[in-house]
Amino acid sequence: MFRSHILVCGGTGCTSGNSMKIYDALVDRIQKAGLEKEVHVTKTGCFGLCAYGPIMIVYPEGAFYSQVKVEDVDEIVNEHIIKGRIVTRLLYKETVGEDGSIKALNDTNFYKKQHRVALRNCGVINPEKIEEYIAYDGYEALGKVLTEMTPQDVIDVISKSGLRGRGGAGFPTGRKWQFAKNSVGDKKYVCCNADEGDPGAFMDRSILEGDPHAVIEAMAIAAYAIGSDQGYIYVRAEYPIAVQRLTIAIKQAREYGLLGKNIFGTKFNFDLDIRLGAGAFVCGEETALMTSIEGHRGEPRPRPPFPAVKGLFGKPTILNNVETYANIPQIILKGADWFASMGTEKSRGTKVFALGGKIHNTGLVEIPMGTTMREIIYDIGGGCPNGKKFKAAQTGGPSGGCIPAHLIDTPIDYDNLIAIGSMMGSGGLIVMDEDNCMVDIAKFFLEFTVDESCGKCTACRIGTKRLYEMLCKVTDGTATMEDLDKMEELCYYIKENSLCGLGQTAPNPVLSTLHYFRDEYEAHVRDKRCPAGVCKKLLRYQVVADKCKGCTLCARNCPVGAISGTVKEPHVIDPNKCIKCGVCMEKCRFGAIIKA
Amino acid sequence: MKSLEELRALREKMKSQTDNRSVAGSDETVIKVGMATCGIAAGARPVLEALLDEADKRQLHNISISQTGCIGMCRLEPIVEVFKDGQKYTYIHMTADKARQVIADHVVNGNPCKEYLIGEN
C-alpha cells in the first residue's frame, strides 16, 4: 500500500508537452528522497483536459496540477510530497475555491456533467500494466461470459442494452453480432476499427492509449459471442503511443493466458494481431479496412454482401469501433438495464467527444446521450475564448455538418443530429466563432475529401473535385448565383452515386452550410464580400479617416509599401498593391484599420 | 489464467497497489501521520511504513493512510490521527509496533488502543 499516488498524464497531448520528462524527474526525486516505498508514481491515459496539459494529480488529496513544467517537479516533491503542503500556484484554477479550499475534480464545470463509461480507466490506471486493469475489475467480464453465459446470452445482453456503433453510423451492435453469429463459416473474424481519421477527432486514440485492455477484453467477448478465434485491430501508424501500448497490452494478456488457448480453463481460444494503417482516410470505411488488412490496396467494395456474411478473407466478420468495444465489459458486468438507463430512447449510454476549435477547454469529454450542445460548449467547454460569439459547431468531420447557433439546445443523439443535417460521426466536435467563414470551412473539408478519395468511383473522384472548384469560385468572388444551385445539384448527385460512405457523405459539409448559412454564400457571390473577413480575395483593408492619427506606423510596417500618407494626416491603402497580410491592422493602436 | 478464481485472487492482491488512488470517501477510515520536521525527527517515518505494511498484509481496502503537516504538539510526536465512524482519535508517542497494534485493534476490531490516546497518561 502507498500513502500517496502521483498520476502523470501520458496521453499524446500531455506527452507532447513533455509529461514523460516530468514523470522521469518525479521518479528520480522520489527515489533520491527515499520515498519509493510510500509514494507511487504512475503514468496514465488521458485525463481529458488537454488544454491545460501537462496534467498530474496527487492522491489522496486529489490535488490537480495543470500546466506543470519539469522545473516544477522539485517544488512538488519538496513541498507537497515531503511536507504535505499543496502547491497552490500549480493547481487547476477551477479546483480552488474562493476561500482557498480545494474542490474535488468532479465538482469542476469541466467534469461535473460528464459521465465516464468508455473513458472510466483513462487517467486512473497505468495502461502498460495489466495488473492495474485487473485491479479495476479488468477481465472479470470475459471470465463471466466464458464461464456463466452462452454466446446467445451475450448477444441478448448487448442487444438489450441498446448500444449502437460509436464509429458514426450508429448501427445496433447487438444486431451486428447476431448477423455474424447466424452466418455459417469455418472461420470468423473480429476486427476493431481504430483508423480514426476525422480531422479533430482523437477519442479512439485516447482510449487505446489509456485503457487498451478494455478493447482487448471486449474483442474476446465478441469473438466468443460469434464463434471466432482470431481478431485484428486496425490502427493508424500515426498513433505511435497507442500502437506501443496496444503491443504491450497484447503481450501481457498472452502472458497471463487471457489471450491464447483455453482461456479461463474453457475450450475458448482467441488471439489478436495489430495491423497498421498507412493513413488513408478511406480505410476507416469497413470494406476498405478489411481489404487493407488482407494486404491489398485500401479500396472499398459494394455492399451487400455485408461483412457479417462475407467479410475479411471472405469469412463472416464483425467490425466495431474502439469506443463501442470500450463499453462492452461494463455492460456485461453492470447489466443491460444499467446501460439503457443512460441516454435517450433511441440512443442509449454515453458518447465521447473531442472538443476542439474556438473553445476554452479543448479536450476529451464523455457525456450521456441527450445532453444539449449548449451544455457541452458553454458548461463543459467554457465557451468561445476572447468573448467571441459562438457561430456553429461542426460534428462528424468531413462526413458531418454544421449545427448553427440557433439549434444549440438540440439534445445530442444519433437521430437528432441526422434530422438537423449533421451526424454523430466518430465524435469530433469543432467549435466555430464569428471569425470563421462557413464557406471556407466547407472548402476545408472538401479539400480533405478530394485528397482522400480513393479514386475507385467516378462520382466521388471527379464529383468532389468539381465541387471543390465551385467552392473556390465562391471564395474568389467569381461565382454566380446559378453556381450555388448547380453546387447543390452536384452534392445530391455525389451522395446518390458514390460507392462507399466517404463519397456518400462528402457533400454534407457543403449541404449543411448552404442550408444554414446561405446568406454567407450569397454575400460572397452577390456582394463579393466575406462577412467573417477570412476569404483573402474578397478582403479589403481600409483606413477609417476619422480615427487615423497619421502616426505612420502602418506605412512603416507594410511589407509591400501599399500604404501612403503624410504625418498627422489620414493614410490610404492602395488595394492594388495590398497583399492582405493584416499587419497594418495588427499594428494600428487606434483601431483605424478595418476589414471591409 | 485458468479460472475466474485465479483472476479474483490476483485482483485482491493488486488492489493494495491502487488503494489510496482516490479522495477518501466518507465511509473510509482515514489515518494521518504528522510528518513535519518535528514528526520525522521523532521517528514518524517507521510509523508510517508500519501502518502501510500492516494494512497491506491484512488486505485492508477501505482505508486511506497519508501524511499531514505539523499538528502543533511537537513534544508529543510522532502523532497519528485516526478518523473512524465520525470520530477523531489522536495517538501520541507512536512507534512502529504501536502502529501495528492500532491497525489490528482499532481499525480492524473497532477497539481504540486507549493507552496510547492523548490525555490518557
Strand content of chain B: 15-25%
Average pLDDT over all residues of chain B = 88
Number of strands of chain A: 17
Distance separating the two termini of chain A: 66 Å
Total beta-strand segments of chain B = 4
**Poorly predicted segments of chain B:** none
Strand order of the largest sheet of chain A: 10-9-13-11-12
Secondary structure class of chain B reads: alpha+beta
User: What is the CA-based Rg of chain B, rounded?
Assistant: 15 Å
Q: Determine the N-to-C terminus distance of chain B.
A: 54 Å
Q: Regions of chain A with pLDDT < 50 over 5+ consecutive residues?
A: none
CATH topology of the largest domain in chain A: Rossmann fold
Classified in CATH, the superfamily of the largest domain in chain A is: NADH-ubiquinone oxidoreductase 51kDa subunit
Structurally, the number of domains of chain A stands at: 5
Protein architecture, described:
Chain A is of the alpha/beta class. In chain A, the strands form five sheets. Chain A has a five-stranded mixed beta sheet. The N and C termini of chain A lie far apart (66 Å). Chain B has a four-stranded mixed beta sheet. Chain B has four helices and four strands; from the N terminus they run αβααβββα. Chain B has a single domain, classed as 3-Layer(aba) Sandwich (Glutaredoxin), CATH 3.40.30.10. The longest helix of chain B has 15 residues, at 4-18. The chains are: A alpha/beta (596), B alpha+beta (121). The A-B interface holds A 1-5, 7, 37-38, 40, 59-62, 83-85, 104, 124-125, 131-132, 134-137, 139-140, 143-144, 147, 256-258, 262-265 and B 1-4, 7-8, 10-11, 14-24, 35-36, 48-49, 52-53, 55-56, 60, 64-69.
Describe, in short, the structure shown.
Chain A is of the alpha/beta class. In chain A, 39% of the residues lie in helices and 14% in strands. In chain A, β6 (230-236), α11 and β7 (271-277) form a beta-alpha-beta unit.
